[in-house]
Amino acid sequence: MDVTEESLEKGRGVRKAMSGDASARTAVTEDAFDLVPELEEWLLGYVWGEIWSRPALDLKTRSALTLALQAVVGAEAPMRAHLVSALRLGWSTEEIAEVFVQQLPYVGAPKALAALRTARDVFAERGVA
Amino acid sequence: MTMHISEAAKEHGRELRTALGASPTPRSSVTAPLYDLLPELEDFFTGAIFGDIWSRPQLDLKLRVAIILVTFAALGRDDEIRRYIPYAVHLGWTPQEIGEIFLHTLPYIGAPAAIGALRVAVKELTERGLA
Question: Residue A1's pLDDT band (boundaries 50, 70, 90)?
Answer without folding.
Answer: confident
